[in-house]
């Protein structure tokens, strides 16, 4: 479909679907993925205005460590239903993620402000941070 955002045959999927990984289902509707700079900007504005706790996972489809932690990130979204989970691929959101220097990077938000940052993987570390910020 020309000019639309619909995926045509042969076009690469974006966001969580574009990772090619088999990911756990999200049962609370609190897991989103940003598939463009505009989409990530809208998500960030929503986080700031809603003041709801949130975590953004900045990763890349080519990053082995990102691929290792992403299934855990999705699984953990089911354990923290009041926390918004966002996956942003740095290659799909290049303008809004140019400040990210390491993948994966996790940013934690509370009351619309970033309050914490975590670099690298580690399901137990991530779970501890999520518990702390939820």
UniProtKB/TrEMBL annotation:
Q: Which domain of life is it from?
A: Eukaryota
Give the matching Pfam families: Thioredoxin (PF00085)
Q: Which residues form the Thioredoxin domain?
A: 44-128
Sorted alphabetically, which SUPFAM superfamilies does this protein's record hold?
Thioredoxin-like
Would you tell me the protein name for this molecule? Thioredoxin domain-containing protein
Species per Swiss-Prot/TrEMBL record: Papaver somniferum
């Amino acid at each position: 479909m020309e000019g639309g955002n619909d995926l045509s045959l042969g076009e690469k999927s974006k966001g969580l679907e574009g990772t090619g990984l088999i990911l756990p289902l999200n049962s609370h509707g609190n897991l989103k993925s940003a598939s463009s700079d505009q989409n990530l900007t809208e998500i960030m504005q929503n986080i700031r205005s809603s003041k709801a706790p949130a975590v953004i996972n900045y990763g890349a489809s080519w990053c082995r460590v990102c691929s290792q932690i992403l299934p855990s990130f999705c699984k953990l979204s089911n354990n923290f239903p009041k926390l918004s989970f966002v996956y942003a691929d740095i290659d799909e959101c290049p303008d809004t993620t140019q400040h990210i220097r390491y993948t994966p990077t996790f940013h934690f938000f509370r009351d619309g402000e970033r309050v914490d940052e975590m670099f690298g993987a580690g399901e137990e570390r991530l779970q501890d941070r999520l518990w702390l910020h939820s």
